[in-house]
Amino acid sequence: MTAAPPDNVLIGVLPGDGIGPEVTREAVRVLEAIAKGSGLDLTVAEGLLGGCAIEQTGRPLPDETWELCQRSDALLVGAVGGEKWDSLPPDQNPGLGGLLRLRRELDLYANLRPGISYLPDLSPLRSCDVDVLLVREAVGGLYFSPHRGRRREADGDVAYDTMEYSAAQVRRIATLACRLAAERGGRLTSVDKANVLESSQLWREVMGEVAARFPSVEVEHLYVDNCAMQLVLRPGDFDVVVTENLFGDILSDELAGIVGSLGLLPSGSLRDDRFGLYEPVHGAAPDIAGLGKANPAAAILSAAMLLRHSLGLDREATLVERAVITLLRRGVRTPDIAHGVEAVSTSAFGDAVLAELDSMHDGQS
After folding, report:
1. Catalytic hit among 107, 131, 253, 351
2. For residue 115, which of 249, 261, 233 has the smallest C-alpha distance?
3. What domains does the chain contain, in order, with CATH numbers?
4. What is the pLDDT along the chain (365 residues), one digit of tens a residue?
5. CA torsion, points 162, 163, 166, 171, in degrees to nearest 10?
6. How far apart are CA 314 and CA 150, in angstroms?
7. Active site residue 253
8. How far apart are the first and last CA of the chain?
9. Which long-range contacts (CB under 8 A, 24 or more apart) does 340-349 make?
10. What separation in angstroms does the CA of 53 have from each of 17, 128, 179, 288?
């Protein structure tokens, strides 16, 4: 899903809420430094998404933001939401009416979440060596339930959501997951709940049909509860994991716990062209917003995914990833992962990444 970069690149930046603007700012600085170093003609344009958009326009996804997204080559997004907006109806909610609507309407069906043990000492499992790519179907399932709501009955309210998947939806995420597994270690784990759910039974059937076209890929089928346990027992045995929307959301947080912090997990939501939406997996964390404590590593690593998948700049993406990993292992860490070393601020971590990239460039010249 890589391609040669366009001559002129427009990145739509939607900083979002809470710590979103802080971590996104550092990721933008890295993108601008890479563009300058590689001669890329880069333009960055900001838009409103989520709670901040509600406060300023009354809507989580304003028309101006939608227009920016449609003309951008890729999107870099911060976390959205917060307790003050949680009770809003779904179409007015920062998540469902903002970010998730954006994914759905742009058909960004493939959410890639790499979990890598950059710092094995942070993992509660300690000795594990993890390099897992979680592939989450991102525009179907319960989050986009065609039948959801509440009704009042004699003994109280009843709330309901339905999980619905078509064979076509499963087939395209299965095909992508098999291709990614073939490019990596050749191992694919498909996660479902086929012993209970009709949607999962269809999922497993279609996964089997698609996997048959990839003889080089070894496919393992696991129920989601067993997968959650196996990720803890043998995390190093997993390579590519593919699953539906809700299961993927839950398992990616477990993966974050295994590698040590949500602040280290980037993500990219892609479709079949090179367009993608890139964001850290963590939330808005309003309790530390504005304090300079937020970890921008996941946002910066999300920018690296943007370089690779949407702009075709694999070498530059690798440099950014290498810079982040080098600094983390050197002990340059924000408070969430400092653990025995002196913590640096959000902006100081960004400064260090830029300095490391400069050092790498000088070393190659």
Report:
1. 253
2. 261
3. 1-123+260-365 (3.40.718.10), 126-243 (3.40.50)
4. 444 556 689 999 999 999 999 999 999 999 999 999 888 999 999 999 999 999 999 999 999 999 999 999 999 999 999 998 988 988 899 998 999 999 999 999 999 999 998 887 778 876 678 999 999 999 999 998 888 888 999 999 999 999 999 999 999 999 999 999 999 999 999 999 999 999 999 999 999 999 999 999 999 999 999 999 999 999 999 999 999 999 999 999 999 889 888 889 999 999 999 999 999 999 999 999 999 999 999 999 999 999 999 999 999 999 999 999 999 999 999 999 998 899 999 999 999 999 999 988 766 65
5. 170
6. 47
7. yes
8. 30
9. 343/293, 345/292, 345/293, 346/19, 346/22, 346/23, 346/26, 346/292, 346/293, 346/294, 346/295, 346/296, 347/22, 347/25, 347/26, 347/292, 349/26, 349/295, 349/296, 349/297
10. 9, 41, 38, 20
Length of the chain: 365
Tokens 């939607």 found at: 14
> Residue 45 in contact with residue 13, Cβ under 8 Å?
yes
Q: Which of 17, 73, 118, 143 is an active site residue?
A: 143
Structure tokens of 22? Answer: 């802080």
241, 135 Cβ separation under 8 angstroms: yes
Clarify whether 193 is annotated catalytic.
yes
Q: Is 249 a catalytic residue?
A: yes
Give the three-state DSSP class for 130: coil
Catalytic residue among 73, 109, 118, 193: 193
pTM score, two decimals?
0.92
Q: Are strands 131-137 and 41-46 parallel, antiparallel or unpaired?
A: unpaired
143 is catalytic: yes
The span from the CA of 273 to the CA of 198, in Å, is 31
